[in-house]
């Protein structure tokens, strides 16, 4: 009986030892699996962190590119503004240059001296080549004449009508009734199309408010025309030509 008991105990001991080693192997396997999972998790975290870092870097590069483009757009807008300002300055200087040229021509063509009693005749000719025609205002008879021929060259009917007397303006508006503005402008340009220059040969003062100009148009009819200039307030206007 004792031998049987010892045998059973020995079997149980063997079984227990086998179970112990089995559990130990299983625990070791679980530890290895756990370690492998931990390493995989760490690798995954590193990959995620690396991906996020790459996304941040890409986003930063995109932001930097947008900042650079915005700076270039601002620079281009500034350059465009400067070019527009320069163009305006050029137009202003061109206008001032035309006015100064017209004033210089008027000074050159103005009579040196006028006798207070008798009608005066200009001793110096006033010469206006076509390329120098410009709007010169209406302050003097010569300026009004130059403004009128410039307006005809440009087809500027509004300025031309402003350079003639009210009676002449009314007559011209009746003649052009029914015609388009383009037709009137074309007729005005045609009137000076062949001219190369205008020369004032004589300036005779009729009264304080009237001056008679003897004008020769180069390239036009081969004759001297008499043009009456009348003053209205502070401005001189062309009157119907004298026959």
Question: What does this molecule look like?
Answer:
The chain is an alpha+beta fold and 243 residues long. The chain has a domain at 110-238: Nuclear Transport Factor 2, Chain: A. It is built from 5 helices and 5 strands; from the N terminus they run H-E-H-H-H-H-E-E-E-E. The protein has helices at 2-109, 141-154, 157-162, 166-175, 181-192, and strands at residues 126-129, 197-207, 210-218, 224-232, 235-238. Strand 2 (197-207) and strand 3 form a beta hairpin. The longest helix is centred in the N-terminal third of the chain and has 108 residues, at 2-109.
Task: List key phrases describing it.
5-stranded antiparallel beta sheet; Nuclear Transport Factor 2, Chain: A; 243 residues; alpha+beta
Radius of gyration: 51 Å
Mean pLDDT: 78
DSSP helix fraction: 55-70%
* Overall CATH architecture of one domain: Roll
**Spatial ordering of strands, largest sheet:** 1-2-3-4-5
Q: In percent, how much strand structure appears in the residues?
A: 15-25%
CATH class of one domain: Alpha Beta
Largest sheet: 5 strands, antiparallel
Question: How far is it from the N-terminal to the C-terminal residue, by CA?
Answer: 171 Å
Shape: rod-shaped
């Amino acid at each position: 009986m004792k031998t049987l008991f010892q045998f059973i105990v020995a079997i149980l001991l063997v079984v227990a030892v086998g179970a112990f080693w089995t559990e130990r192997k299983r625990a070791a396997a679980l530890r290895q699996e756990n370690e492998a999972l931990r390493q995989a998790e760490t690798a995954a975290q590193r990959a995620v962190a690396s991906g996020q870092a790459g996304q941040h870097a890409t986003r930063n590069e995109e932001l930097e590119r947008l900042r650079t483009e915005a700076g270039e757009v601002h620079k281009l807008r500034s350059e465009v503004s400067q070019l527009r300002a320069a163009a305006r300055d050029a137009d202003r200087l061109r206008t001032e240059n035309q006015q100064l040229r017209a004033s210089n021509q008027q000074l050159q063509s103005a009579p040196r001296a006028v006798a207070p009693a008798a009608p005066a005749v200009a001793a110096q000719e006033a010469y206006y080549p076509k390329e120098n025609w410009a709007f010169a205002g209406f302050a003097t008879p010569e300026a009004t004449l130059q403004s009128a021929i410039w307006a005809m060259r440009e087809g500027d009917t509004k300025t031309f009508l402003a350079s003639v007397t009210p009676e002449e303006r009314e007559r011209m508006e009746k003649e052009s009734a029914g015609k388009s503005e383009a037709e009137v402008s074309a007729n005005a340009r045609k009137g000076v199309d062949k001219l190369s220059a205008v020369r004032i040969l004589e300036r005779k003062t009729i009264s304080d408010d009237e001056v008679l100009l003897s004008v020769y148009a180069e390239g036009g009819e081969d004759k001297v025309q008499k043009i009456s200039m009348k003053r209205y307030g502070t401005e001189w206007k062309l009157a119907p030509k004298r026959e």
